[in-house]
Amino acid sequence: MVLNKLTKSQIFLSLAFFYSNYHRNIAIYRYDMGVTKTQIFNSKQNELAIIFKVLANPARIAILQYISGQKACICNDIVDEIGLAQPTISQHLKELKSIDLIKGEIDGKKVCYCINLKKWKEIQDLLNSFFDKTKFNCC
Hints:
The protein is mainly alpha-helical. Helices cover 69% and strands 10% of the residues. It has a domain at 59-131: Arc Repressor Mutant, subunit A.
């Protein structure tokens, strides 16, 4: 059998090459689909979709609830409160920062996070206008 003659490192490299090409192709495909789909919707629809996508994780909701109850906090406080690993919390904070919902200030080795009240109000107004225009007269 040919596999018996291959070393473990050769098998690993072959698998790594296959998976990296596979995932790269999926990423390109997803990127292409996302670009073509978002082009057919207006900017408010796309903005709402991005906001809903970011808020669609219960850990992010818990983080927002915790931060909104504090004057400011550091990332380690969030880890202790939420109970997720530091890298996971950091990723969630990154997603919340991507829509400018929170802001962080570097204080030595600490990063203090707080709610961006201006963006919070903008999102609230956007969501209110979405729900106010929705008709409740169906089925």
